[in-house]
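Example record

One chain of 350 residues, shown exactly as stored in the release files.
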Amino acid sequence: MKNYLDFEKPIVELQRKLDELRKQSETHPLNISLSEEIAQIEKKIAETRRQVFASLTPWQRVQLARHPRRPYALDYLRATFTGFHELHGDRLFGDDRAIVGGFARLEGERVMVIGTQKGRDTKENILRNFGSAHPEGYRKALRLMRLADKFGLPIITLIDTAGAYPGVGAEERHIAEAIAVNLREMTLLGVPIIAVVLGEGGSGGALGIGVADRILILENAYYSVISPEGCAAILWKDRTAAPIAAEALRITARDLLELKLVDEIVPEPLGGAHNDPQIMTETLKVYLIRHLHEVQALSTEDRLKKRYERYRACGHFQEAPSVMAVSVGSSQPTTDQEQPLAVKAGNGEP
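Predicted structure tokens for this chain:
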């Protein structure tokens, strides 16, 4: 097992033992005891795998979402879709290879697919900027979405990014403005939009192609306003507190479904999407087709209305219990019932 994670060590140790026994069985093919022991180890591996992956912590799911062997956007474009024809450039500055997109077919239906793409090795990661898009990437995505809207093609976005690129060049070319325009324009597009979080869904970088009628998330993916490490660095001044931050942020698929920020969880093969990419791509196709047909059944007016209501409903708060506040120039506390603004100016004016 390559690229195994810390919590997978019990499985790895059993797998190594199984490999050794199989080598022995090749030199002693008639040894019945070896065959029985191999069968027992295989059963033990299956049981251990189920136990390990049935009780993953939020941080362990973040690690799975970042697994280097996990299928990326282009892997799904080759397996889940057919006839993919990539389009390049934003017609303003250049072609950002961190975002890929173009025409494709989903079970024979024409669609526009746009996704963030990471690299498998150092060379490709540099080419793809580690999946973190520049402003021209989001402008390219918007150009393709407007093209899809013009021709009445549904839009499917595949999200897998730690976030938009925060470098000087991106700031000079107005990364925040590019993402903000995408958020605004995606709410107004008349065609169906489905977004899928494949692995990492980081902050505005994910939202830049994430405004949709339906949002699906893979079982071990996460969607968050900030990475666990970034949150830990801010709140605890220590990036090693990332596991605590991951739990506090409530960024796992189950948490997001409970908070009604996503519509459905797409199950992964036991051990993660990288453990059986073929099954994963086939499973995603089934979910995409079903949700696409449901969204297409709505009229354009109803679809836009529901999309608007969906995002207006995001974020809930509760009134805090009575909070003690102190008036300026006075040591006497007042309750929030007496003082609605918590702090009162010395002249009595709020």
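Notes: The CA atoms of residues 90 and 156 lie 18 Å apart.
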